[in-house]
Amino acid sequence: DINIYSSSRNSNIFSIKTDTINIKLFHLRSLKYSATSFSDYAEPIFPKLPYILQIELGSNFPKGTLHRIFYQNYFGSLKRLNFDGAHLGKEDEFAFGNYINLFSLCFSGYSKCSEIKFSELFDSNNIYSLQELKLPDIEITCLDLQFLSKINCLKKIYIYSLASQVHIIDFLKLLLFVQEIQIKKLSVYGNEIYEQFGTKPVYLIWMNNYENLKYLSRCVE
């Protein structure tokens, strides 16, 4: 494992591409990288990491960075990917398209998504192994919901909110196989849930575990 915190370009071992770095990090399993100052010129240049299992990036990356790092470089063994403060844009389309074996994808901090849907970070023709998703400050659209409903391995999902055209009941019905669902702006959908089921306890219960989700399934059939 290696943790790298860089406060300047001169102290950043990933600011240039060298064979020495490639050799020393070839068998790396886990990488945690953060830079306090970030510009197009200081974008990290990662070496080949064929055995990397987990990457955590803690910089305020601008749009297009994730595409350049993950689409143009393929980390075939990667299982867990965490971001803190990533900015996602149209330039990041298909950034994670090839990562069909990725188990966990989490965005934390002040990650933002604009001019691109979450599902467009992937390839709709592929089947993914994602078990955990954390998407704060990212609004889930109908296209995203369709994509999520095909990830049968998904066990946990945390989202910020749903787009106006996505109904909370449809969202829950399509994701009944998910064991744990958290929605940051859940209170927004209180009336719709109450109108559907007539009691608030059901609305509170179905977020807890698989057994309660099965109960919800019987309610909406």
Q: In a few lines, what is going on in this structure?
A:
The chain is an alpha/beta fold and 221 residues long.
Task: Please describe the topology of this protein.
Elements: E1 2-6, H1 19-24, E2 30-35, E3 54-57, H2 65-71, E4 80-84, E5 87-88, E6 104-108, E7 112-113, E8 132-140, H3 142-148, E9 156-162, H4 168-174, E10 180-183, H5 190-197, H6 200-205, H7 210-220
Parallel strand pairs: 1-2, 2-3, 3-4, 4-6, 5-7, 6-8, 8-9, 9-10
How would you portray this structure in words?
This protein is α/β, with parallel strands linked by helices. It has a single domain, classed as Alpha-Beta Horseshoe (Leucine-rich repeat, LRR (right-handed beta-alpha superhelix)), CATH 3.80.10.10. Helices cover 24% and strands 22% of the residues. The protein has helices at residues 19-24, 65-71, 142-148, 168-174, 190-197, 200-205, 210-220, and strands at 2-6, 30-35, 54-57, 80-84, 87-88, 104-108, 112-113, 132-140, 156-162, 180-183. The strands form two sheets. It has an eight-stranded parallel β-sheet with strand order 1-2-3-4-6-8-9-10, with helices on one face. It has a two-stranded parallel sheet with strand order 5-7. It starts with a strand and ends with a helix. The model is unreliable at 200-221 (pLDDT under 50). It comes from Hamiltosporidium tvaerminnensis.
Task: Please tag this protein with its features.
single chain, 221 residues, alpha/beta, eight-stranded parallel sheet, two-stranded parallel ribbon, 10 strands, disordered C terminus, LRR_dom_sf, Leucine-rich repeat-containing protein
